[in-house]
Amino acid sequence: MDPLEDGFLDRYQRDKQGDLSDLNKLPISNPLHPLRLGSIPSQISEPSRIPNSTFLRTFMARSTLLAIASPIVSQTCHLANLPKETFCTILGHLPPSSASSLALTCKGFLAALGNDPFEALSRDRYETYVLLWFIAKDLSHQSVCHSCNRLHNNETALRCYRDGKNGCGESQKRHKALKCRLDTRLDWDYKELLDEDFSPRIFNMAMKHSLHNPDCEKFLNALSGECTAKGDWHAWIKESQTDCRILRGSFIHRTQMVWITPTNNRTSFGLAMEQCAHTRVCYMNGIIYTRSYGLSREDDDADSQSLLFDWDSPETTLNLLKCRRCSTQCRLTMKPLPVEGSGMAIYITRWVDLGSGTLNEKWQRYFQRGRFEFEYQQQPDSLFLSSVFEHDGGFRSKIEDQRYASLFHSPVPEN
């Protein structure tokens, strides 16, 4: 997840940060806050001479950056004896993030350079993020929050996210999770395309954790779950269950959902269910069909399918649908309820490869609307994403044998 990838700069606008004299008054979005973490053990002691600067005396004395300044570089390094003007000339050719990194490699550098590289860093939110990203690359348990420009400890962030997801009252942990927007349900634009509890921040942390430790069960469990929605959809009931796996550096997300109507719903009201930004599954008056968007009109029409529901068939399954604009694959199954004249159930299973993080092309294409110049190239090993999951996790059994058994099983006649 390299922050220098194409398109990244558009997300982090450079802005002024205001007065630095009182850090307690800085807004949560200020990039100076993320560096004041106390969770990383100090590796070196505080340098004997801190430059005479309000910024450094207030900020750097407790800074995580100072705490992790490399002890490998000798503190009597000959470069530290170079004139300050020479250092400034070198740093003048570097972006603020790189200049700050160089200043923090040695106590002598830090003492000689003073406040200059950090003042430039404090005025640039994007450069602050890049510096954090450099640091996080070497710290397996730390990840950068794209939203509030902080370094988050993965375990702490995961715990805060779970508190928010489980609705643990107005606890302090829940308040912190919402304040730093770890719980991104507040600003999630495409809830229906994954699920309302999915957090891109935790997703990025899971992918980073997988690089150092293959055991990602805690993260995968946090990003999975169940949802029951008995809303006013003209007698339709919706239930869903999500699961995820990490396979060869890619995050595979599966959503199983079912729409149930207890009555023969032949009304003017149908269903429209988005599977990605380019594929929609629709049902109306006994006909289920798919619509595709994103390529030419001819290609979109060619990808569309339709099927008349057979009320006399035990169940009907459509061929596996593969979006030609992103990695989405889905399968539809329609099943009539056994009681004559009753309704039906529509099962939809969706698999999507979200790549290695939110900066990955697979993630971005999944949510990208509009026209594409070229179609998505399916990789040979991703032809059937369903093979990543061993079974359905008991989803259909929960629906048909437990929660809605009275709808799916004919009553046993009394003797």
TrEMBL record:
Domain F-box: 80-117
Name this polypeptide is given: F-box domain-containing protein
